[in-house]
Design brief:
Pfam families: FMO-like (PF00743). The mean pLDDT is 96. The strands form five sheets. Strands 1, 2, 3, 4, 5, 6, 17 and 18 form an eight-stranded mixed sheet that branches. A hairpin with a 3-residue loop joins strand 5 and strand 6. The longest helix is centred in the last third of the chain and has 22 residues, at 438-459. The chain is built from 16 helices and 21 strands. The chain has a domain at 8-146 and 383-543: FAD/NAD(P)-binding domain, CATH 3.50.50.60. By secondary structure, it is an alpha/beta fold. Helix 8 packs antiparallel against helix 9 and helix 13 runs parallel beside helix 15. It binds 3-acetylpyridine adenine dinucleotide (N01).
Length: 548
């Protein structure tokens, strides 16, 4: 039974970058809004991921809002790739500038949401008892927010400390003099390993699948390289949404790798490697599409690994060989491969020595037990759907989102879900989200959603719902686009392969921002043909055709 049940126009779940942006937008439209956030502060990913080395792999000048000049022009990034504390500070700065906290309930998790057909509204249950009702439900829970901690035998009996990269303690953790195991070598592990190697007495890196990683080439930024001081930097931030990834890169060669000479290929890849960062994957036009081209680039990176790592056997174990480069999210590192040249670091190849279980003092791999004081899980997330399907969302006729998505997520344009009226997902499955600059993706969705709510206010509609036909058609398109790339060729979290039992569906939209932007603009221009408003198809309203 609810202690209180307040009523709002909009309830937003999550106060990360998506939730904050959405709150500011709906407020500016004169709507009442309440945000529920499980953490004690704003920031989302950048609130939770406080692990040593946590850093953005998008340059700061692109990793900031553009919807209001104040919060982009007045902010200064100290480094090319800002570290977690600075991004968290930025989130707090934005919250202060717009006085966002007064509409956010912190330390409160939404544990149920039910659509009421009689009132066209959602009723939310929270673990704090502060329940709420709202016409619209906006889900801003993040794509990588439900941590994956594998169920390994004996873990409950392990006497040491355990951590997950995405639930890092707020107070600093001291690893000095300790024997530490890191499990996982994705983006989080690749960032953690060099830092932990500096602190710990002994570091074991437990690798199941090696990652391709590109050096970040991080550096300090000067006063003249900021959005507020440099017109070129500013112009590029505003140009970013028109690019494929939401980031402006320079010096890219639009030609296909297979169409250039070996000399030109080497020169361009060396240049991109020296530039550093994820832009390496854009060095040529077809790295993500053509297997042969991709192979050349993967060979180039494997050669760099062999250069960096002194022990040839270790270097070979660090070389990915069974998936195309980029099919798992490319990692961006500072000193990752070089760390394996340290005497206190050992790479444990779990393919040769699988984890058999935990003892009170360590981890048994293959035929030996590693004595460890601390275990750091860098084992990733139940990505894109985990936080949504665990929230107890029930749409029309009691349909549970977890059931509706049992065979994989299905959305219309990555925004709405058939059977779940008045509910919108920000940067959810079926949208570019994790494949592009997340801030650009978020701002785009928030603007589209704001326009939809305004359209409904103007037309007096109280309910919208995605049609099953529009959703099926979008899901087909998302799958077709993914099949035309190499992205489906790895057992990645993009396809849910990291979570036992999760359906293998490629979840984000791989067509790039321009195609997606055009598609969602077309939907608006055509009067929302994929939606039904108060029982009337949007296309009928738009064309003025007779209502039946
Ligand atoms: O997680 P991951 P992440 N036994 O899923 C291994 C973003 N991000 O937190 O590949 C042993 O990529 C797993 O092995 P395998 C970014 O989008 C960004 O690192 O499944 N190992 C893998 O090595 C990124 O892609 C930034 O065989 C197990 C690792 O754990 C996403 O978040 C920084 C295992 C998980 O890698 C997720 O990255 C950090 C098991 N049972 C994160 N289960 C930046 O901006 C899993 N693994 C830089």
């Amino acid at each position: 039974m609810a202690l209180t049940e307040d009523t709002y126009d909009v309830v937003i779940v999550g106060a990360g970058f998506a939730g904050m942006c959405a709150l500011q937008r709906v407020r500016s439209q004169g709507m009442t809004c309440r945000v529920f956030e499980a953490g004690d502060d704003v920031g989302g990913t950048w609130y939770w991921n406080r692990y040593p080395g946590a850093r953005c792999d998008v340059e700061g000048r692109f990793y900031c809002y553009s919807f209001d000049d104040r919060i982009s022009h007045d902010w200064t990034w100290s480094e090319r790739y800002p570290a977690q504390p600075e991004i968290y500070d930025y989130a707090r700065y934005v919250a202060d500038e717009f006085d966002l906290r007064k509409d956010i309930t912190f330390g409160t998790r939404v544990v149920g949401a039910r659509f009421d057909e009689d009132t066209d509204s959602w009723t939310l249950r929270t673990d704090g008892g502060a329940d709420a009702r709202a016409r619209f439900l906006l889900l801003a829970v993040g794509c990588l927010s439900t941590s994956n901690v594998p169920e390994l035998p004996g873990i409950a009996g392990f006497a040491g400390r355990t951590f997950h990269s995405g639930q890092w303690p707020r107070e600093p953790v001291d690893f000095a003099g300790r024997s530490v195991a890191v499990i996982g070598t994705g983006s989080s592990g690749v960032q953690l390993v060099p830092q932990l190697a500096e602190q710990a007495e002994r570091l074991y890196v437990l690798q199941r699948t090696p990652s391709f990683s590109v050096p970040a080439r991080n550096r300090k930024l000067g006063d003249t390289e900021q959005i507020g001081t440099n017109p070129t930097v500013r112009a590029e931030r505003y140009q970013a949404p028109q690019t494929r990834t939401g980031i402006v890169y320079h010096g890219l060669d639009p030609r296909n790798v297979v169409d250039v000479s070996a000399g030109d290929r080497e020169e361009q890849l060396r240049w991109a490697w020296t530039e550093g960062g994820a832009g390496f994957m854009q060095a040529f036009g077809d790295i993500g599409r053509n297997e042969e081209s991709n192979g050349y680039v993967a060979d180039f990176v494997r050669d760099r690994i062999r250069e960096y790592v002194i022990d040839p056997a270790v270097a070979e174990r660090l070389c990915p060989t069974d998936y195309p480069i980029g099919a798992k999210r490319i990692c961006v590192d500072t000193g990752y491969y070089e760390t394996y040249n340290r005497d206190n670091v050992e790479l444990v190849d779990l393919r040769a020595e699988p984890i058999r279980g935990f003892t009170p003092d360590g981890i048994t791999v293959g035929e030996r037990t590693l004595d460890v004081d601390d275990v750091v899980f860098a084992t990733g997330y139940d990505a894109m759907t985990g936080s949504l399907t665990r929230m107890g969302i029930e749409g029309r006729d009691g349909l549970r989102l977890a059931d509706a998505w049992a065979a994989g997520p299905a959305t219309h344009l990555g925004l709405g879900v058939a059977g779940f009226p008045n509910m919108l997902v920000i940067a959810g499955p079926g949208s570019p989200s994790v494949l592009v600059n997340m801030i650009v993706a978020i701002e785009q969705h928030v603007a589209w959603i704001g326009d939809l709510l305004e359209y409904m206010r103007a037309s007096g509609a109280t309910r919208f719902e995605v049609t099953a036909q529009a959703q099926d058609s979008w899901v087909r398109h998302v799958n077709e686009v993914a099949a035309g790339s190499l992205l489906t060729r790895a057992a990645s979290w993009y396809v849910g392969a990291n979570i036992p039992g999760k359906p293998r569906i490629f979840m984000p939209y791989a067509g790039g921002l321009p195609a997606y932007t055009q598609r969602i603009a077309d939907e608006v221009a055509a009067g929302y043909p994929g939606l039904v408003f108060d029982g009337v198809p949007g296309a009928v309203v738009a064309t003025g055709a007779e209502r039946t």
